[in-house]
Amino acid sequence: MINGITALKISEIYFGSIDAKHEVEGRTPAEIKYFEDSFVLPPNIDINKYFDSKKYYVSGLKGTGKTALLRYIQIKADKENIKTSFILFKSEFDSYERESLHNSIYAAIPDADQESKVAYDYEQAWRMYLYQTIVSLTESGRLDVFQSNIIWNEFKELIHAVMPINKGVSISLPKITGGKVTLSKDPKVEIDFELVDKKKSVNFSEYCRICDAKYKELTPSATKNMVFVDELEIRALDDTSTNRDIHLVRDLIVSIDRLNQLSRMLSYNLSFILAVRSEVMQSAMSIGKEINKPLFDFGDTLTWGQYSKQKISHPLLKIIESRIISTEKLHGISKHGDVWTKYFRGNFHGKDFREFALEQTWYRPRDMVRLMEVALKSFAGIDVLYQKNFDESKRLYATESWVEIGEELSASMTSEEIEGLSRVLGKFRNPFTIREFKLQMDELGGIYSEVDILEKNHKPGELLKKLYTVGVLGNYITGKRGNKIPQYAARGNTKVLLEEQFIVHPAVKPFFSTNL
Question: N or C: which end of the chain has fewer CB within 10 A?
Fold first, then answer.
């Protein structure tokens, strides 16, 4: 008890999981309620727009809270008797599945060169996958989109004609060979498919056209339905797989927009809500189809940097405060008092804990959770936290943060190239220039193969831009009074200045150097 206010041990507070999916999937109703009660809604989000289908895209850098927001919307939707389901792109579509689709679709072009292959279109395949999803989830009772009548039965027959007979098999992207799909059985619908061979194969585009037409004839049910699509990922294993994944993601974004627009036009009570990382979205935008327009009109970007001047009242700090209060409530504590003075003692390098904590992050909820969890894992059973606790756990926090950043960089770089970057960055304990960065690449390229590969595939200026964007580096500029000021993308300064000095972010610096 402190000043008449009951307190727990700080080690008893649950600050959350690094991956919000783990806070909901497989959890008890009580644990899900804890997540709901302690959730902090991003200041720029109006979730009613997602229920009204006015918004259906969520973008943001890794760790900004996209998955948490989708899970929170799902919990609220379930309470409103809305049918919901999740599609996880990363886990449901492995490399084999993606490569199989890619190879089978462009096999329709007999003499396709590499350029035409990577530019091929996956919209029809995705639309068929989404149709399969609707049918499969409806049959399992997880969705209730359309009235069960003759048209619905005909639509199901069409979809089942190319779906696996074994319903225990997970839904997959349509298997297309040479522009054809094979009918697993003859649909009873009065449609005369033109068979292209004796194996009951039909032209895939013709099959899609018939399914599209039948879909538009369906009668909506009165039940609202929401399908969430998460974990969109691009794997930079090589140029071919990267180009393939970029096109897959782009066409999934387009397909979801078109089906949502169709639902609006035909009064279907169905909406798909998709979360996409900013760097993945930018890669997909670079290859045409103007997906920036639907993403802008029907999407929200999760960013917390615009509040960076509001130090001790920053919205991110409410995540810590909310988790403390929610845990206290579970233990019967109703008078919470000032949680900051109750659980965080002394000053932290001359600063209030809240200001110190913000400076250790990239203004993302996941960083805040990681900062607390790493400190508590390093010092089990403690009552309160002091500066020394964070100082002694800073290397683990830096390592975990670099792993996270590496996943962001993997949208456009291989693991070997990322390892090369860490070699180069380990040489800088003080501010440096682009010229010094290039000199280090040249020097280390003759020693380490990963740096040599990095240097061959990437220009120094482009690398510094990437590192600035994901927060590894900041600019170190001269202020009006002649003093040096660190400037980071996460704090609202999105434009990198290549002519200025650079500085490694203090939170990740311990990973690169053993002499700090």
Answer: N
Residue-wise DSSP of 70-99: HHHHHHHHHHTT-EEEEEEHHHHS-HHHHH
Is the pLDDT at 114 greater than 50, yes or no? no
Rounded CA separation 236/242 (Å)? 5
In terms of residues, how long is the chain?
A: 516
Taking every pair of C-alpha atoms in the chain, what is the biggest distance, in angstroms? 84
Give the global pTM.
Answer: 0.84
Q: How far apart are the first and last CA of the chain?
A: 38
Alpha carbon distance 60, 29 (integer Å):
29
Q: At what angle do helices 365-378 and 317-330 cross, to 10 degrees?
A: 60
Q: Hey, what are 471's tokens?
A: 């927060």
Mark out the alpha helices in 360-433 (DSSP H runs).
365-378, 387-392, 394-409, 415-425
SS3 (DSSP) at 55: coil
Quick one: which of 380, 425, 390, 391 has its CA closest to 406? 425
What the block records as the tokens of 206 is 């013709």
Which residue type occupies 379? F
Task: Tell me which of 28 and 291 has the higher pLDDT.
Answer: 28
Q: Hunting for tokens 């009772």 — which residue is that? A: 141
**What are the distances in angstroms from CA 408 to CA 43, 94, 173, 199, 460?**
24, 18, 26, 45, 18
Please state, in angstroms and rounded to a whole number, the distance separating the CA atoms of residues 324 and 376: 14
Map tokens 């003692």 to a residue: 345
pLDDT at 68: 92
Tokens 């009065």, residue located: 190
CA–CA dist 497, 35 (Å, integer): 40
Per-residue DSSP letter, 19: S
pLDDT at 95 (0 to 100): 57
Q: With cut-offs at 50, 70 and 90, classify the pLDDT of residue 60.
A: confident
CA–CA separation, 496 and 314 (whole Å): 24
Q: Which residues pair with 85 in a beta bridge?
A: 227
